[in-house]
Design brief:
mainly alpha, Methyltransferase, Methionine Synthase (B12-binding Domains), Chain A, domain 1, 4 domains, globular, signal, Lytic_TGlycosylase_superhlx_L, Transglyc_AS, Lysozyme-like_dom_sf
């Protein structure tokens, strides 16, 4: 054979596997599209029979044949694909279809415990009413006690429980009150019509108070047979009033509490909700009442708000008092260790303060890092590294789940690929999950890697949780705009966890979660065309526009990253208003004063992530600061907003 022919032949042979893949993948892509639409005449089974994804075609075939497929056939499929989410999906489809067809024994045959989803749970427990009546009845009551309409699949279950007296008038009244609380008038009317005449006074009272909340003060203290409706009525009525008009609710409750004879648990539920909203909405002249009831509420969220109100007023002894009344688990959070230390510091107990700062500084979060800086010590990364050799990666590469994930990515099914991958992580042992994370890191699957650490609970694997994704773009556009690249990385990590196609419910898009209007505005500012809703998903462009937008926010707040991060999340108008309405002398009090929990958490996360990214890049946290001196020393008020 001539040498040239030999070389060409060798090259062709080397390309054959990838060419075969491409042909097979193309056939699978077409087959999957046809299978989803039950268009079986379009599928050449011979072309895909040996494909790693052939189970997806079988899934859609069985799905289309249900319920006219035996449970044995379904279970064989589930067993064959037990390492794939296909098994869970098939089980769910079978429960749906067998349940709708009334084939209770078949539902039992394919079930392996209570499924997820309300409709499937109703099918499941209906199927077990005769074989496990007590458990099915308890579950049925749980599904009944909600304030919204349930799926039609629940009707047979509820009808059986109603017929045998398990769903009685008490249960109907309880659900009526839940529907009232939820504002579901249609369901409330439906339930009212199903109560016996003995409940008419309770129904009339509910309807009167629903239209005139002030009538609550004159409502009977005994409602329903043997006062069975009283507690749930007053809980529902007070919750509606608390949400609609908290000051009035407080005034009404101060009168009602003296004349009602409720169980302590029922009274505590009302007062916990009322205290929470009184503090959230800062109702005037309410603190004495809150302080009187708070010790018996056993409520972490109310204690948190009470401490924040004390911080707002700089009442350091109250800060100390209420933190020490928190449950031990809550007190051990760095946030409350930090504030307890600050309180002792303000009260002159420096030795106690330093001990508490030291405890807080052991944790890897915003207040842990802030405590470390007060002590002048490095930030505690608590980083855990895991090492895998090439042999381990080769072994992982041969796992069917990895091959399916890669094949799904090749045919453009990223969503299914993620489902396969995360299912494997959730089913894996701790060591196997780490090996999967290592493989994802080696593949450069940044978003999938982050999700792997979440699914596998690898909270200390910082190189995996905070990978150097899109590193060159962050460095380039950070330098071009004058924005710290680590801050850009932190914003992106918080916004999208590196998913370039991320889409929020509000419509924000891409790595840095830009709203289409913001992307268009910044593009005009840069002399670029409007990228549109899909162009903005381009990672490099998204980072360019996001870094420019963040630069503008930093300039607006004179380089203050706390205010700029808050504006990136909540909008500059809100941050301007918060600064105008307050004059706060320290950064930590400013963070606690941010009224939206989402934005408070966001600001803390972004500054914490930024410090982690810089520490990982440097190899340690030595010399890495959570905040600049200016951010620690500036007063957070209207003067922080730069004037044009």
């Amino acid at each position: 054979m001539p040498r040239t022919v030999h070389i060409v032949s060798t090259a062709l042979l080397a390309c054959l596997p990838s060419m075969s893949w491409a042909i097979s993948d193309s056939a699978m892509r077409d087959a999957l599209d046809a299978a989803r639409n039950q268009q079986w005449e379009r599928i050449d089974m011979r072309a895909i029979d040996d494909h790693i994804l052939s189970g997806y075609i079988t899934y859609h075939r069985l799905r289309g044949q249900l319920p006219d497929v035996s449970p044995d056939t379904v279970n064989r499929y589930i067993d064959t694909h037990s390492d794939s989410p296909l098994s869970t999906w098939m089980r769910g489809q079978a429960i749906d279809q067998y349940g709708e067809a009334g084939r209770r024994s078949d539902v039992r045959a394919v079930s392996n415990g209570e499924p997820s989803g309300t409709a499937r749970q109703c099918h499941y427990h209906t199927a077990h009413l005769d074989t496990a009546p007590q458990q099915a009845a308890q579950a049925g009551l749980r599904l009944w006690h909600v304030g919204q309409s349930q799926p039609n699949a629940c009707d047979p279950l509820f009808e059986r429980l109603r017929a045998n007296g398990i769903i009685d008038d008490d249960a109907i009244w309880d659900r009526l009150m839940l529907a009232w609380q939820a504002g579901n008038a249609g369901l409330a009317d439906y339930l009212s019509a199903r109560l016996s005449p003995a409940w008419q006074t309770a129904i009339d009272t509910y309807q009167t108070v629903a239209s005139n909340p002030q009538a609550l003060l004159n409502s009977p203290t005994c409602l329903g047979p043997e006062c069975a409706a009283t507690a749930t009525f007053y809980q529902a009525a007070m919750q509606r009033l608390i949400h609609d008009d908290t000051p009035q609710a407080l005034a009404v409750w101060r009168t009602l509490a003296e004349r009602l004879s409720l169980l302590p648990s029922d009274q505590r539920r009302i007062e916990e909700e009322l205290a929470y909203y009184v503090l959230v909405r800062e109702v005037p002249n309410s603190m004495a009442w809150v302080d009187r009831v708070l010790p018996r509420l056993e409520s972490e969220r109310v204690l948190e708000l009470r401490v924040r109100r004390a911080l707002q007023a700089r009442q350091w002894d109250d800060v100390r008092q209420w933190i020490t009344q928190m449950p031990t688990r809550q007190q051990e959070d760095a946030r409350w260790q930090y504030w307890l230390a600050r309180a002792h510091q303000q009260l002159g107990n420096q030795t106690v303060a330093e001990t508490l700062f030291q405890q807080a500084a052991s944790q890897r979060n915003f207040f842990g890092f802030a405590a470390a800086e007060r002590l002048g010590q490095p930030l505690a990364l608590n980083n855990q590294r895991y090492y895998f050799d090439e042999a381990s990666r080769q072994r992982i590469a041969q796992l069917p789940v990895v091959k399916r994930t890669q094949a799904l990515l090749r045919i453009g099914e990223a969503g299914l690929a993620n489902s396969e991958w995360l299912y494997a992580v959730q089913q894996a042992s701790t060591q196997e999950a780490r090996a999967l994370a290592d493989f994802a890191a080696a593949q450069g699957w940044h978003a999938r890697l982050v999700q792997t650490t979440i699914a596998g609970g690898m909270w200390d694997a910082l190189e995996w949780r905070f990978p150097q994704a899109y590193y060159d773009d962050f460095i380039h556009w950070g330098r071009s705009t004058g924005v710290d690249p680590y801050l850009l990385m932190a914003i992106t990590r918080r916004e999208s966890a590196y998913n370039p196609n991320a889409l929020s419910p509000a419509g924000a898009r891409g790595l840095m979660q830009l709203m289409p209007g913001t992307a268009a505005q910044v593009s005009r500012q840069l002399g670029l065309d409007d990228p549109g809703p899909y162009g903005v998903l381009d990672p490099a462009l998204n980072i360019r526009l996001g870094s420019t937008y963040l630069r503008d926010k930093l300039q607006r707040y004179q380089g203050n990253r706390l205010a700029a991060a808050a504006a990136y999340n909540a909008g500059p108008g809100r941050v301007d208003r918060w600064l105008a309405e307050n004059s706060i002398e320290t950064f930590d009090l400013f963070v606690e004063r941010i009224p939206y929990r989402e934005t408070r958490d966001y600001v803390q996360a972004v500054l914490t992530y930024r410090a982690i990214f810089e520490s990982l890049a440097n190899g340690s946290s030595d010399g890495v600061a959570l905040l600049s001196d200016g951010e620690k020393q500036v007063r957070y008020d209207r003067a922080l907003v730069a004037r044009d």
